[in-house]
Design goal:
Helix 3 runs parallel beside helix 4. The protein has eight helices and seven strands. The termini are far apart. The protein has one domain: Rossmann fold (3-Layer(aba) Sandwich). With 254 residues, the protein is of the alpha/beta class. The N terminus is likely disordered.
Length: 254
C-alpha cells in the first residue's frame, strides 16, 4: 500500500500526536512565543501562497517574482511559507528589492526546503500555529496557483472573514485560467444551494494583473490607516479628560 512506503519522518510527526500531551503543549507555546517575538517588527505585509512544485522557468513563478517586486517597491513586506516554487519566487522579489522577506517554514516529509531569499526564517512543527502567524501579520493574501495547502489558506481566511473573526483583508486569486473553474463553482453551485450568500463573494478578487493587485492592496492600506486614525481620535478625548482630572481633582465630581 502507498501509505506503507512513507518515510520514517512522517511517522515521527504523527507519533507526536500520540505522545505526552503536556509536552506537546509546551512545544506549541514555544512556537507561538517565538513567532510573536520574531514577527513583531512587521508593519504592512502581504502573504503570497502557491505551489512548491512550480519551477523557476514556469510562467507563474516569473509572474510571482514580478508581483512581489511591485509590492515590495511600494512598501509591503512579503510573507510566504518559506519553501521552493511560488514561495521562493515571492521571497526572491522582496529580497532583491531590499524589502523585508519572511519565510514561515513547516516540517514536511517532502517538498519543503527553505529557500535562500529570507530575512526572517521561522520553522514550525504545527500547521495551526503557522496559520495564526499568517493571519496575525498579514494585511492581504495573494493565492497564486497551488495545491491543497494554498486552498487551505484561502478558505480559512475566507471563513474567518465571513464569520467576523478577523477584520476584512484583500483576498486575491491570481490566475483566471487556474482559479476560474473554482470561482464558477462557487458562484453557481454554492449560491444555488444557498450555502453562502452573494455578499460573501465581495471578499474575493480574481485577476491576472499584478498592477491590479497592487492597487487593491494600496486601497486597503489607506482604509486601514484611516480606521487606525479614527480609533486613536476616539481614545484621545477620554485620555485628555483623565489628565485634567489628575491635575484638577475637583473635576471628578462633574
Amino acid at each position: 500500500m502507498p501509505w506503507q512506503n512513507k518515510k520514517n519522518h512522517t511517522a515521527s510527526i504523527i507519533d507526536d500526536f500520540k505522545g505526552d500531551q503536556s509536552w506537546r503543549i509546551f512545544r506549541i507555546i514555544s512556537e507561538f512565543t517565538q513567532g510573536f517575538g520574531e514577527l513583531s517588527v512587521i508593519k504592512d505585509a502581504i502573504s503570497i501562497f502557491g505551489s512548491a512544485r512550480l519551477k523557476p522557468d514556469h510562467p507563474y513563478y516569473l509572474k510571482t517574482v514580478e508581483l512581489s517586486t511591485l509590492l515590495s517597491q511600494n512598501g509591503f513586506a512579503i510573507i510566504t511559507g518559506g519553501g521552493p516554487g511560488i514561495m521562493e519566487a515571492a521571497n526572491k522579489g522582496a529580497y532583491q528589492q531590499d524589502q523585508l522577506s519572511i519565510g514561515l517554514n513547516i516540517e514536511l516529509p517532502m517538498e519543503q526546503a527553505p529557500n535562500r531569499y529570507q530575512d526572517i526564517s521561522l520553522d514550525f512543527r504545527y500547521f495551526f500555529v503557522r496559520k495564526v502567524m499568517f493571519v496575525r501579520y498579514s494585511m492581504g493574501y495573494v493565492c497564486m496557483p497551488g495545491g491543497f495547502g494554498t486552498l487551505d489558506e484561502f478558505f480559512e481566511a475566507l471563513t474567518l472573514m465571513q464569520t467576523h473573526k478577523i477584520y476584512p483583508l484583500p483576498l486575491v486569486l491570481f490566475g483566471t485560467q487556474f482559479w476560474g473553474g473554482l470561482m464558477d463553482w462557487i458562484k453557481t453551485t454554492l449560491i444555488e444551494y444557498e450555502t453562502i450568500s452573494e455578499e460573501d463573494l465581495k471578499l474575493i478578487k480574481l485577476t491576472d494583473d499584478p498592477q491590479e493587485v497592487l492597487e487593491f492592496m494600496l486601497i486597503h492600506r489607506k482604509w486601514k490607516e484611516e480606521q487606525k486614525n479614527k480609533a486613536e481620535q476616539r481614545c484621545q478625548v477620554p485620555l485628555q479628560v483623565l489628565r485634567e482630572c489628575m491635575l484638577n481633582p475637583e473635576m471628578e465630581d462633574k
